[in-house]
Amino acid sequence: MYDLIIRRARLVDDTLADVAIEAGKIAVVGQLAAEASAHKQLDLAGNYRLSAGWIDSHVHCYPSSPIYHDDPDLVGVSSGVTSVVDAGSTGTDDIDEFYALTRSAKTNVFAFLNISRIGLLRQNELADMADIN
């Protein structure tokens, strides 16, 4: 018995398929037997598309940034995005704190390190050469 069966989902190639989930992972993609069972079943009747998780390659999700930041789960899993890439919100001064904060997110968070050690504390983070080391 599966945890979840999604029936008649429309895939990116426009075919219909069933998807079975077991222990939080995709167990089967294809045509499941009608008697296949699950704790929960959802029939999309071909009216909804189902795809792999999306990746947003440019976000800012460091909450200590005074300029801009988003909650990684709000722009992530709540929007169908399974992974986000922070585009340099932090530099070497804050990367450890940023990393620790990302561990509580359901969304996979990856990051580019800002060339400035202070990160995006201000929009001219590259103005002072002392901050680039």
UniProtKB/TrEMBL annotation:
Gene Ontology MF annotations: deacetylase activity; hydrolase activity, acting on carbon-nitrogen (but not peptide) bonds
Transmembrane segments: none
InterPro entries, per the entry: Deacetylase_Atu3266-like, Metal-dep_hydrolase_composite, Metal_Hydrolase
Coiled coil: none
Protein's name in the database: Dihydroorotase
Organism, as annotated: Serratia fonticola
